[in-house]
Amino acid sequence: MENIWSLLIGTTLSTLWIEPNDLVFNNERWNVAKIHKIIWDALLDYGRVAWNRCMQLIIKTFKTSKSLIKAGVGTRLFVSE
Question: What pTM value is reported for the model?
Answer without folding.
Answer: 0.60
